[in-house]
Amino acid sequence: MLRLSSNGNLYIYTYLELPGNGNNVWVETYAAFSKKGRSECFLPEMCGSYGLCEDHQCVACPTPKGLMGWDNKCKLPDVPSYNASTAANVGYYKVKDVEDYRPLGDSDGEGPMMVKECMKKCSDEVKCVGFFYRNDGSMCSLAAQINTLAKLHAVFTGLIDAYIKYAK
């Protein structure tokens, strides 16, 4: 049986007929995101509407002032409604060494471009709430939605950073 759970995880269950005792059971035989496979941190809403996940746990709430303790009220900062002067009224804060459920590959996004160019593109885009920047290729990937940020493993330190838009 294939099941899609409310948190976005995909499960496969196998029906086992147990000989002798007559108790038959459904057993989970696969989960797309699990401690055995891809980290649960890559589930879009692992940490609710926003948060930083590391080692299968929600550990922080990224804010313009830095990482704060995570709770279920953690959310993206508000951005001003769009008008001609919006770009001047927004800033960005950096969350280092993270990605989300959409892995940023070598050729994903636009570029090469500098971080400031990517900030301008996001500032000019009404739906952009932030972007992911791949440092090794100077690639920019705008995001209209950001939920759980997954901390990258130590071997990927310095590879991808998120820049979150906020109202100054």
Description:
- This is Apple domain-containing protein.
- The chain is mainly beta.
- Helix content is 6%, strand content 38%.
- It is built from 1 helix and 12 strands.
- It has a 5-stranded mixed β-sheet, with no helix packed on it. The chain has a 4-stranded antiparallel β-sheet with strand order 7-12-9-10, covered by helices on one side. A 3-stranded antiparallel β-sheet has the order 1-2-3, with no helix packed on it.
- A hairpin with a 2-residue loop joins strand 5 (57-63) and strand 6 (66-68).
- It is elongated, with a radius of gyration of 19 Å.
- The relative contact order is 0.18.
Task: Give descriptors for this structure.
1 helix; 4-stranded antiparallel sheet; mainly beta; 12 strands; 5-stranded mixed sheet; 38% strand; 168 residues
List the topology elements.
Layout: E1 2-4, E2 10-17, E3 24-31, E4 51-54, E5 57-63, E6 66-68, E7 90-95, E8 98-99, H1 115-124, E9 130-134, E10 139-143, E11 148-151, E12 160-167
Cα gyration radius (Å): 19 Å
Largest sheet: 5 strands, mixed
Distance between the termini: 50 Å
Query: Which percent range describes the beta-strand content?
Result: 35-45%
Oligomer: single chain
Structure, briefly:
The chain is mainly β and 168 residues long. The protein has one helix at 115-124, and strands at residues 2-4, 10-17, 24-31, 51-54, 57-63, 66-68, 90-95, 98-99, 130-134, 139-143, 148-151, 160-167. Strands 6-5-4-11-8 form a 5-stranded mixed β-sheet, with no helix packed on it. A 4-stranded antiparallel β-sheet has the order 7-12-9-10, covered by helices on one side. Strands 1-2-3 form a 3-stranded antiparallel β-sheet, with no helix packed on it.
